[in-house]
Amino acid sequence: MWSLQEFSDEVIGGHMVHLGKYQGFLCIVTSVASRCSKTDINYTQLVDLHAPYACSTRFTDPGLPLQPVWRQQPGSNAEIRQLSADHNVTLDMFCKICVNGTMLTCCGSG
């Protein structure tokens, strides 16, 4: 068994982030999808949730693009980064993560 705070991965943009940095925060970990019937509204809601608390030192909502969740995250990390930019997402957006099995692993860069 592992805790979320033990997880480290690359954020889109190239640097590593250890989720332990969020210890003590109200942290809503958000699964995001780039090809889903509700992608646009969900990204808008994510930004709307984040915006009022962006300056808070006790709230964060990192995005975790999960694959293969119903094949809704088929794009590359570069495509996810562009989609995030198009929707004004400024929170930590991690590289695409594979969720098969008992561990989370990066699905690769791109």
At a glance:
The chain is of the alpha/beta class. The chain has helices at residues 39-50, 77-86; strands at 8-10, 16-18, 26-27, 30-32, 59-60, 63-67, 97-98, 105-106.
How would you describe this protein?
This protein is α/β, with parallel strands linked by helices. It has one domain (26-102): Glutaredoxin, CATH 3.40.30.10. 20% of the residues lie in helices and 20% in strands. The strands form 3 sheets. Strands 4-6-7-8 form a 4-stranded mixed sheet. Strands 1-2 form a two-stranded antiparallel ribbon. A two-stranded parallel sheet has the order 3-5. Keywords: Oxidoreductase, Peroxidase. It holds the Pfam family GSHPx. It catalyses: (13S)-hydroperoxy-(9Z,11E)-octadecadienoate + 2 glutathione = (13S)-hydroxy-(9Z,11E)-octadecadienoate + glutathione disulfide + H2O; a hydroperoxy polyunsaturated fatty acid + 2 glutathione = a hydroxy polyunsaturated fatty acid + glutathione disulfide + H2O. Belongs to the glutathione peroxidase family. Monomer. Has a tendency to form higher mass oligomers. Interacts with FUNDC1; this interaction promotes GPX4 recruitment into mitochondria through TOM/TIM complex where it is degraded by mitophagy.
Key phrases:
110 residues, alpha/beta, Glutaredoxin, four-stranded mixed β-sheet, two-stranded antiparallel ribbon, 2 helices, 8 strands, globular
In the CATH scheme, the class would be: Alpha Beta
Q: Write the H/E string, N to C.
A: EEEEHEEHEE
Distance between the termini: 30 Å
CATH topology: Glutaredoxin
Uncertain segments of ≥5 residues (pLDDT<50)?
A: none
The global form is globular
User: Compute the gyration radius: what is it?
Assistant: 13 Å
- Please state the structural category: alpha/beta
| Proportion of beta-strand residues | 15-25%
The helix fraction, in percent, is: 10-25%
Largest sheet: 4 strands, mixed
What kind of assembly state do the chains in view correspond to? single chain
Mean pLDDT: 75
Compute the number of strand runs. 8
What CATH architecture do you see?
3-Layer(aba) Sandwich
